[in-house]
Design brief:
Strand order of the largest sheet: 5-8-2-1-11-15-16-14
Largest sheet: 8 strands, mixed
Distance between the termini: 48 Å
CATH topology: Carbamate kinase
Radius of gyration: 18 Å
Strand content: 15-25%
Structural class: alpha/beta
Order of helices and strands: EHHEHEEHEEEHEEEHEEEEHHEEH
Helix content: 25-40%
Shape: globular
CATH architecture: 3-Layer(aba) Sandwich
CATH superfamily: Acetylglutamate kinase-like
Length: 277
């Protein structure tokens, strides 16, 4: 296997049985054929929402993160650490990819503090403070593909719901990995709606304040930024259709760069931003 692993984050549309799951599995198979070591980190928010509704539990999100109380945490554990994680492991194993399902609390992989502004305002939601990736390196060295559910733990051993994008970004940084963040849109878009082919880290604060990233795109941009700043080798955000045999296709998706681009991203004037809010 290649010394530099690849962290692949997939969401609910990529893990649903009727969704893009076969494409995800096929991509991992193709990566393994090229000798790449892969860590898969998954979300599954839509299934969590559906299961919560079945149980009569309401869903509320703030900046793309689910406000989580004790009852909702049980649903998150059931759906993410149970149903979806097992589904991915089974699909990969059936395709000939030796896989092991774990969660972010396995070997304290994802240490967290309280998330939200102020901290704790999202309930039992954790903000990754890094990633203890020894367990992942051990599994990769043995030829296994780890499949990680985004559950974190605090210093007292308490369990927390963790946004899957942020979890994957922390793991990519910890491994010094290439980070591919799969979403349901082909590119990150600027405030005018135009696709952004690349974005430099110095541009991200203004990009976020412009209102270009909304709802679920906010943690994706944040995760990409933190991963690159924290040690990830490269960061790419795009759809599963933008991936070829060994990685992103030329011109597909959005690449995050450590330095500012020569041509800055066009942003809407302040009045236009305020009108969009």
């Amino acid at each position: 296997m290649s010394e530099m692993p690849l962290v692949l984050k997939v969401g609910g549309r990529e893990t649903a049985p009727s969704g893009a799951l076969p494409k995800v599995v096929d991509f991992v198979v193709r990566l393994q054929r090229t000798g790449r070591a892969v860590v898969v980190v998954h979300g599954g928010g839509e299934e969590v929402t559906a299961r919560a509704a079945e149980l009569g539990l309401a869903t509320r999100k703030v900046d793309g993160q689910r406000v989580t109380d004790g009852a909702l945490l049980e649903v998150v554990l059931e759906v993410l650490a149970g149903r979806i994680n097992a589904r991915l492991v089974h699909a990969l194993s059936e395709a000939g990819v030796p896989s092991v399902g774990i969660s972010g609390h396995s070997a304290r992989l994802l240490p967290v503090t309280l998330a939200g502004d102020p901290p704790g305002s999202l309930g039992l939601v954790g903000e990754p403070t890094g990633a203890r990736v020894r367990i992942l390196r051990s599994l990769l060295a043995e030829g296994y593909t780890p499949v990680v559910a985004p559950i974190g733990t605090d210093q007292d051993g308490g369990l927390y719901n963790v946004n899957a994008d942020l979890a994957a970004g922390a793991i990519a940084a910890g491994l010094g990995a290439e980070f591919l963040l799969i979403t349901d849109v082909p590119h990150v878009r600027d405030a005018s709606g135009a696709p952004v082919r690349s974005i430099g880290l110095p541009e991200v604060p203004e990009f976020l304040s412009s209102g270009a990233a909304r709802d679920g795109m906010i943690p994706k941009v944040t995760a990409a930024t933190r991963a690159l700043a924290g040690g990830a080798r490269s960061v790419w955000v795009g759809s599963i259709a933008g991936l070829g045999d060994a990685g992103p296709l030329d011109g597909a998706g959005t690449v995050f760069l450590p330095a500012a681009r020569v041509r800055p991203i066009p942003l809407l004037p302040r009045k236009s931003r305020e009108a969009r809010r």
